[in-house]
Structure formats: structure tokens, C-alpha cells
Amino acid sequence: MCDSTSDIISHLPSNVLDKILMCLPMEETARTSVLSRKWRYIWAKLPQLVFDDRFCRGSLRKTKNELVMTIYEVLLLHRGPILKFALSLSQLENCSEIDRLIVFVSNNGIQDLTLHVWTGGLYILPSSLYSCLQLKRLNLRSCRFNFKPVPGFKGFSVLRCLELCRVCVTNDVLSSLISNCPLLEQLMLEEFINLNCLEIVAPNLRLLRCKGLFDSVCFKNTPRLAEVSINTVASTAGLAFSKTEMSTLGSAPVIEFLELGYYYVKSMAAGGVPKRLPITLSHLRYLKLYYICFGEVDEASFVLCLIRSSPNLEKITIESFFCETAAMDRVLELLEVQDWSDVSLNKLRKVEILKVSGTKPEMEFIKLLLAKSSVLERMLIEMNTKMVTDKGLGILKELITFRRASPQADVTFRNPNEDKV
């Protein structure tokens, strides 16, 4: 019975065997070489090699040099192209021996490269990385780019996905790298070192995620950008925000999902807020904003400008932020003076306003959404239990009586400290 089962597995198509083996940890894959003569070199022809913590479970006492040498021995035994190579070992420190691994895979048709260095400081990327011209995906953690241009390097012409975390690089080097990846579709940047202002020129970019220390992120040529998430912290102390023109969103005309954090909102608002954007964000379906103080004129104006410019919104999520020094009367004047006849939210179905403190500007904003959303199905208001007063709770309850453009709109209040909604 065992022989029969073994025969069935052994006679599976080679591509099926490859997929089965690639699901196993590297150590287990290598052990299949003892099954039979036919199996002896199957593992050595796999197009992907993944060295993660599963690989060194039985080698916890090995030094960093011994780990790298073990990996290098595996590479020497490998036959055929290496399309995917991943090195992410929590016990592997930064060491020059990693250079040899990069050189090896650069000469074997590498298309997907992951390099995560967890301890021992930043790993300085070798020049051999720039010879990996067939790369389609590059994922780096705790690395440092060479700040000087590499002679003859004209970019990764087929790179589609770039993920960088805790990477040290200058503004010019990263901007140049991105602009020289003409097919780039996904860009994820997190916890950067030595980077403050970033200009993005990427005509095929579809997804952008930025998190960490950035003063500003500007879109220069991103006509296909559909999903944007920017949650940044100013790299300079205090509230000296760099001015980022709101018109930069005009370089993302087909954006569908937009998520912005507090510092980026302040950065854009500091550059001046128009009544509406120069172009209509007709493709935007989901708007998500964090730490918005409706008592601040610039932030409230920013939110209203985005809503005015996005007539096809289907969902809005806003996490409110209570600011004790805010000049709320100015915002109330803004809400009263402006003409809202040009605001159309005929596709908005779901609204979430979180950490509501019961301030008058918050209530006026909620009232506006109820009055302008003709197909609204559900509005969730989550209270900020630390800030809500009896008066604020009374205003929240009064919202139930506000006029609603949608007869089926359900307004739900939620106290995060209570089980019941």
C-alpha cells in the first residue's frame, strides 16, 4: 500500500511536485532527497528557496557565519534558475557574508528577492543587487542603499512590486529608483531612515502605502494609482508641517481608496485648502481619515474639500480627535456660510465616525452627511467615552431626529466600553 502511494506521488507531473515541495520548509524539502534516486535532485531544481526561521529550527546554536555558510552550501547544490530567494532569519545578524548570497542569486535569474536583516545594524546593499535586472519583486528590511549612483545602472525595468522597511536612503536616490522602474505597480514604504520628502513618478503604480517618518509625499505622475494609504509622522519636532499642495491629488485621477493619517492631512492643509480640487475624484469609493479635529478650520476644510470633489463615495470612515484649544466658532461659521447645493453624495451607503466627543462642529458635519446622502444605509457613531459630556450625549441622541435624505438610513451609537451596540 505504501509502495502504491509512493508511486502515485512520484509519477505526478513535475510542476505539481514543485508546488508540493515549495509548500514545505527548506529543511524538510531537502530531506526528500533520501526517498529514492528519482527524488534525489528534485528539491535541488526548485525555482524558489526560502530561508526563514523554520529553516534553522534545528540550528539555533549556529553562529551567523555558520548559518550563511549552510545557506551557501544549499545554493551550491542547487541546479537551475533561482526565481525566488528569501532570507529572513531572526537570528541572522548583519554580516558581509550575505554579499556572497546576493552575488550568487544575481547570476541565476532571480525575479523575487526578499532580504530581512533583523539584528546587527543596517546591511549595506552590495553593487551586485543592481545586476538583478530580471527582478519583478524586491522586499528589503533594515538595509542601506549606496548613496552614490551605480555606474551603468538604469533601473529595474520589469520590477512590479517594491517593499522597503527600515531602509536608509536619500530622497534623490529613492525617487530616482522609483522613476526608473517603469512597470512598478505596488510600492510599500515603512519606517524609513534619512528620508523626509518623496516625489513619486510611477506611471503604472496602482498601490501606494507609506508609514513612518515623512514630511511630505507628492504624486507627480501616477495616472493609474487606485489605492493610497499614507500614515506618516513628521520627521521634524513640533508642528512645523511641510506644505504639500492638495493639487498633488490631481496626479491620481482614478484613485478608488484613500487613507490619510493626521500628519499628512496637516501637511496638505498647510498648503491651503480650496473649495474643491481642480479635478473630480470620480473613481474614489472609500475615504478613510485619522485624527481629524473638526474644531480646526484647516482640517474641517480639508475634509469638506475631499467630499465635495468625490461625488461617487460609497463609504466614509473618520476617526475624530478632540482638540481643547480649537476655535470651534470659526468652523461653525464655515459650515453655515458655505453653500452646500453643489454637494452630492448620491452613492454614499455607509459612514463611520469614530471617537466622537459631541462637539458642535462634529454634530454639524454629521447632520450635513445625513442631509446629503440619499441612499445611506448605515451611519455608525462611536463615542469617545473619555471626552463625551452629558451635553454631548444629549446632542448625539438628538441626531436621531435630524432630517435624513435616505428613508432607510440607520443611525447606530456605540460605546466601545460596552458590549451592546
General description of the model:
- The structure is a single chain.
- The chain is an alpha/beta fold and about 425 residues long.
- It is about 25% helix and about 20% strand.
- It has helices at about 1-10, 15-20, 25-30, 65-75, 100-105, 170-180, 260-270, 295-310, 330-335, 360-370, 390-400; strands at about 50, 85-90, 110-115, 125, 135-140, 145, 160-165, 185-190, 195-200, 205-215, 215-220, 225-235, 255-260, 285-290, 315-320, 350-355, 380-385, 410-415.
- Strands 1-2-3-5-7-8-10-12-13-14-15-16-17-18 form a 14-stranded parallel beta sheet. A two-stranded parallel ribbon has the order 4-6.
- Strand 16 (about 350-355), helix 10 and strand 17 form a beta-alpha-beta unit.
- Helix 4 packs parallel to helix 5 (about 100-105) and helix 7 (about 260-270) packs across helix 8 (about 295-310).
- The chain is elongated and about 75 Å long.
- Mean pLDDT is about 80; it is low at about 235-240.
Annotate the secondary structure layout.
Layout: H1 2-10, H2 14-22, H3 26-31, E1 48-52, H4 64-77, E2 84-88, H5 98-106, E3 112-116, E4 123-124, E5 137-141, E6 143-144, E7 161-165, H6 171-179, E8 186-190, E9 197-201, E10 207-213, E11 216-221, E12 227-233, E13 257-260, H7 262-270, E14 286-292, H8 297-308, E15 315-320, H9 328-337, E16 350-356, H10 360-372, E17 378-383, H11 390-398, E18 410-414
Parallel strand pairs: 1-2, 2-3, 3-5, 4-6, 5-7, 7-8, 8-10, 9-11, 10-12, 12-13, 13-14, 14-15, 15-16, 16-17, 17-18
Helix pairs in contact: 4-5, 7-8, 9-10
